[in-house]
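Run log // design_07
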């Protein structure tokens, strides 16, 4: 596992599962969750103070066991979060260009356009 970048509210790591390259991105949205964060639920969500969005981006297809393993890894990363006050979920981006999706997701939470993002420094804040 190798850290790719670290912002105040986002971090990313590259890892390999069964020889498949994946990028794990964790973004602290610093807002309560909304129904849009859970489009697959047909019921109202429980309101909490904060929401963390996790993204798995890979140029490969992942099977159920690989997704379960990635979910377990994310659970370890987020085990310190006060679960009573913070919700989180995971979105998978399979068969995608990793750098393109990464920059698109980051530009949504920073003031930078995808072309302005630069990962040459220890911290990108």
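design_07 sequence
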């Amino acid at each position: 596992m190798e850290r790719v970048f670290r912002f105040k509210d986002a971090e990313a790591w590259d890892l390999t599962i069964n020889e498949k390259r994946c990028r794990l991105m964790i973004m602290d949205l610093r807002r309560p969750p909304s129904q849009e964060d859970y489009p697959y639920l047909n019921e109202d969500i429980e309101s909490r103070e904060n929401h963390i969005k996790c993204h798995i981006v890979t140029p490969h297809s992942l099977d159920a066991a690989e997704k379960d393993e990635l979910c377990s890894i994310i659970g370890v990363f987020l085990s310190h979060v006060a679960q009573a006050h913070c919700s989180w979920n995971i979105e998978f981006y399979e068969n995608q260009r990793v750098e393109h999706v990464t920059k698109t997701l980051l530009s949504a939470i920073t003031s930078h356009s995808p072309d302005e993002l630069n990962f040459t420094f220890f911290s990108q804040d």
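The longest helix spans residues 64-77.
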